[in-house]
Amino acid sequence: MIQYNITNPQLTKPANLQLTLDPFTFSLSNPLENGVKGQFFCPETSFATSEQPILLQNIALPFQWDEKAQSLNLQFSSQAKSTEKQAGSIQGQLSCTPPKKGEKLDVNTALIQGLFQLTDLSSEWLDLIGERPYISLLIGPTFSAKMTLNSTPLEQTLSVGWSSPNVNFDTSLFINQTGIRLQSPAPVYLNLTPDSYRVLDRLLTNTKQTAFGLNGQSQFTLSLSKLFLPVLARSEVKTFADRFFTLRSDFKEMELVLSATNPELSFVDKASKEVISLSNVNGSIHKLSGQTPITLSLDSTVSTQSGQNAKSGSLSGSATFDIPQDSNLTIDLSKLNTTIGLQAKQFPCRALDLFARASGRTDYPFTSLFGPTLHLSLNTNLKELSGNVDLHLNTPTMQAQLQGHLVNGSLLLDAPFYSQLLVTKESSQLLLSEINPLDLSYIYSQAPIKIEIPAEGAFLPIYPWAPGKMTIPQASIELGRVACRNEGNVNIALGLLKSKQFNKNQDLTLWFAPIDLSIKQGLVDIERTEILISDTFDICTWGKIDLVKEYVDMTLGLTAQTLS
To answer: Which phi and psi angles does 374 have, rounded to 5°?
Structure first.
């Protein structure tokens, strides 16, 4: 994580705290029987941190205890100033009264009403409180906030409003023994600026180098029209802490209706100067109480501009998930029902790389693997993990077609599976970073690598994943001519030939004959395959790979000519 040098605030000079009490009479047996009224006051309190000085002025805390009404009232007000900016204000009030008139005040059963309001406060205060100096860059230089609370032992109403240059919302929640419910539609406006995007990118990737920059400002509008979160009901409320409920993960009772829009989101790739723009972005989440399916949707048009060359594409998709739960609210994915439809046309992979940075990937994974653009079509309709699967993928470096159906989580093919992949240095470096038994820097192919699996008899247990049950009666892999660095285990093996032709750390050409293999109960049986090294030396290999035990038993064969 990114480290920031922020220290806790320290008092820089003595603070003069004053207490004043209004005249009142009291008895020795019950000093407060006639009530008491007064105020704490401090004209100025100065703090300092490692980043900036802060100042609280005219701090006033009036209070009043009414013995007859058994009510307590507190107020708070102050001006807050950070650096040389104009001071904002802090105000608050809190009252506690018995649930019924004439009863004795008990905080566990009291009616509590509160108001807390911040007006035109410097966002540097949030940097200080959160010990993160970037919060002000995300929300803007100043902010105002207001929170009201009405609380009884069984019900609470909480209203929260926020206003700043980059974040604005106003919402109200009602909480009782059944759950947390949104009282009225709550739009949220988020404004993304070049500065705030740069901060987000650094936080997500933990790097100082930003590969993409935001062109201008972009506003997201989130419209939350329905929200209900079920809670664990309490049989009785004995303490004040019992007012705070625990959420219950009951997807059937949960309710969420949310839509998001963005007119245009434009980025520039700093390396290639390519401009990537997403226009008319619309997304939604729809889940009603009493129903289990969750529906997701997303639509957007996309364009890329590189010099005088411009391309346009689109992305659209929808999905429905019916999440099964038993009486203990445990999720059983083996009974999952889902429908997915996804279409991407001429979609720039740089846009996917942009979103991949949100998970910390800074190695351009999609562009390295697929090339500049992709076409994708995915359609599934599953009931209890049984149903059809139809996938078509077409990119400058990869093509794949999968038509089949799932039966209780296991994939069976309806048509032969076919895929071809042009391996480049960039894509191989991406794959070798995950698995690299030969300890190579890169590998690349002169023609696309082809993989074909006939439909008959193919059985792949996907969920739960069980390689010991995998069966593929026949499969073929055409690697053709590939090249790699003469290093690692390859260099060690070729050292047996003692040929000056194999210079270390130079590219080495390998010409593979088609590889035929089969898989039975997780055991891969690879038939004899010939490999021509540097167009001169002929070798061959065959053997078995145990996917369950992760064990390789292969034989390397050298011809008489190669040995001589």
So the answer is: -145, 155
